[in-house]
Amino acid sequence: MLDTLTRRLAGILANLRKQGKLTEDDVNEMLREVRVALLEADVNFAVAKSFIGRVREKAVGEEVFASLTADQTIIKIVRDELTEMLGTEQTRFDFGSQPPTVVLMCGLQGSGKTTTTAKLAKWLVAQGKKPMLAACDVQRPAAIKQLQVLGEQVDVPVFAKTDGSSPVQIAREALERCKYLMRDVLIVDTAGRLSIDEALMAELKQIHDTVRPNEAFLVLDSTTGQEAVSVAKAFHDLIPITGVIFTKLDGDTRGGAVLSVREATGVPVRFTGVGEQVDALEPFYPDRMAQRIIGMGDVLGIIEKAELAFEGEDMTGLEAQFKRGDFDFNTMLDQFRMMRKMGPIKNVLKMIPGLGAQIPEEALEAIDDKGVNRIEAVIFSMTAKERSNPDIINSSRRKRIAAGSGTSVEEVNHLIRQLYEMRRNMKQLGKMQKQFMKKGRKR
Ligand SMILES: Nc1nc2c(ncn2[C@@H]2O[C@H](COP(=O)(O)OP(=O)(O)OP(=O)(O)O)[C@@H](O)[C@H]2O)c(=O)[nH]1
């Protein structure tokens, strides 16, 4: 997800760190590179321009040039401005003052609207809600069946009618049924538009005015780039959209639309779809996304994934370990066990601070569960002492471990280096976060 941009920005900012004192020219050069990276990622031109302008202005205002911590201040400014561009704070779900909460789903055909409706229902169930779905897409008979199948998958009832009732009528009846059954959220799936078709748009407005939703979500396909931003403008002109859900962020996407939509339309991104399965939906946090894009990883995101995978288990130990950066091979084994539960390992690795942007893309692709089995074999061939204190693993021990695990000494060396590297990255991140917090408090 946004891998190319992350790699580029992390590289540019890492160069900045190496330079020591910075002149205004250094910063201008860096900003030029950032601008190119944003445009290459398909960020809207006006959005990129105003972003760069704001960063430059702040850098001048904070008199960073020639100061010893100029690099860190600039990175903080870039991070803060990216967060601002993405919407500053996570927008909370508006459940309204009394149930049922009504959520209207709209979008172009094929954007992933129906799948996302089911994903959202599953997410709401995890929040302790009792949702119900309304199938108002009568344009495409298969859409009703699709929603029913998905509803069954996530164990949520679906209200549907095939007697020629109009979508507005179905929506109205669904709301009544929802109240009667005391379900607390109604999610209304509407017909997908092929393009901004007037008749269908009028119908959408009518449904909107009938059910008066607390949340009106527009589902956008992130692979369509800036086109998605134009679609958002058109929908938002017609009905007040309260949030955008970008789908297919797991695919090969440059991500520019995700970065520009809030600033271009005022509508925040609320969720992202990261796969075809019904649980592949992630709430959107502007600050975490910004941190991730500049290569600082997403520790909170990892912890959240872990919490979901390990419902009820105490995760404070893991959080503290991440923060202190003091893990050994035992914790690495633990983490592999956890990562397996958290989804494809390469996705989790990408969220580790400093690591995601460093591992070449091909290498990440090659990291599959088989690769992890090999690493585990190496660790299993270590003694308990070696696992908890890798400093004692000298060359004869390395040979023994390689022979015992059926791997090579190079592989063992590589793994030991990786452990030290991860420790270093974690510590660095911990320090940077502390400094950022201190600076933030001073203001
Ligand atoms: N990879 C990936 N595929 C997705 C995601 N969300 C949806 N899809 C796929 O996109 C395709 C279209 O999804 P639908 O939910 O049928 O699209 P729709 O917008 O409801 O289409 P209409 O009902 O025609 O309006 C399906 O094959 C989905 O599996 C996602 O986040 N990632």
From TrEMBL:
<feature type="binding site">
    <location>
        <begin position="189"/>
        <end position="193"/>
    </location>
    <ligand>
        <name>GTP</name>
    </ligand>
</feature>
<keyword id="KW-0733">Signal recognition particle</keyword>
<dbReference type="Pfam" id="PF02881">
    <property type="entry name" value="SRP54_N"/>
</dbReference>
<dbReference type="InterPro" id="IPR042101">
    <property type="entry name" value="SRP54_N_sf"/>
</dbReference>
<dbReference type="InterPro" id="IPR004780">
    <property type="entry name" value="SRP"/>
</dbReference>
<comment type="subunit">
    <text>Part of the signal recognition particle protein translocation system, which is composed of SRP and FtsY.</text>
</comment>
<dbReference type="InterPro" id="IPR022941">
    <property type="entry name" value="SRP54"/>
</dbReference>
<dbReference type="InterPro" id="IPR036225">
    <property type="entry name" value="SRP/SRP_N"/>
</dbReference>
<dbReference type="GO" id="GO:0006614">
    <property type="term" value="P:SRP-dependent cotranslational protein targeting to membrane"/>
</dbReference>
<comment type="similarity">
    <text>Belongs to the GTP-binding SRP family. SRP54 subfamily.</text>
</comment>
<dbReference type="Pfam" id="PF00448">
    <property type="entry name" value="SRP54"/>
</dbReference>
<keyword id="KW-0342">GTP-binding</keyword>
<dbReference type="InterPro" id="IPR004125">
    <property type="entry name" value="Signal_recog_particle_SRP54_M"/>
</dbReference>
<dbReference type="InterPro" id="IPR003593">
    <property type="entry name" value="AAA+_ATPase"/>
</dbReference>
<dbReference type="GO" id="GO:0008312">
    <property type="term" value="F:7S RNA binding"/>
</dbReference>
<protein>
    <recommendedName>
        <fullName>Signal recognition particle protein</fullName>
        <ecNumber>3.6.5.4</ecNumber>
    </recommendedName>
</protein>
<keyword id="KW-0694">RNA-binding</keyword>
<dbReference type="GO" id="GO:0003924">
    <property type="term" value="F:GTPase activity"/>
</dbReference>
<keyword id="KW-0963">Cytoplasm</keyword>
<dbReference type="InterPro" id="IPR013822">
    <property type="entry name" value="Signal_recog_particl_SRP54_hlx"/>
</dbReference>
<feature type="binding site">
    <location>
        <begin position="247"/>
        <end position="250"/>
    </location>
    <ligand>
        <name>GTP</name>
    </ligand>
</feature>
<dbReference type="Pfam" id="PF02978">
    <property type="entry name" value="SRP_SPB"/>
</dbReference>
<dbReference type="InterPro" id="IPR027417">
    <property type="entry name" value="P-loop_NTPase"/>
</dbReference>
<dbReference type="InterPro" id="IPR036891">
    <property type="entry name" value="Signal_recog_part_SRP54_M_sf"/>
</dbReference>
<dbReference type="GO" id="GO:0048500">
    <property type="term" value="C:signal recognition particle"/>
</dbReference>
<keyword id="KW-0547">Nucleotide-binding</keyword>
<comment type="function">
    <text>Involved in targeting and insertion of nascent membrane proteins into the cytoplasmic membrane. Binds to the hydrophobic signal sequence of the ribosome-nascent chain (RNC) as it emerges from the ribosomes. The SRP-RNC complex is then targeted to the cytoplasmic membrane where it interacts with the SRP receptor FtsY.</text>
</comment>
<feature type="binding site">
    <location>
        <begin position="107"/>
        <end position="114"/>
    </location>
    <ligand>
        <name>GTP</name>
    </ligand>
</feature>
<dbReference type="InterPro" id="IPR000897">
    <property type="entry name" value="SRP54_GTPase_dom"/>
</dbReference>
<keyword id="KW-0378">Hydrolase</keyword>
<feature type="domain" description="SRP54-type proteins GTP-binding">
    <location>
        <begin position="268"/>
        <end position="281"/>
    </location>
</feature>
<keyword id="KW-0687">Ribonucleoprotein</keyword>
<dbReference type="GO" id="GO:0005525">
    <property type="term" value="F:GTP binding"/>
</dbReference>
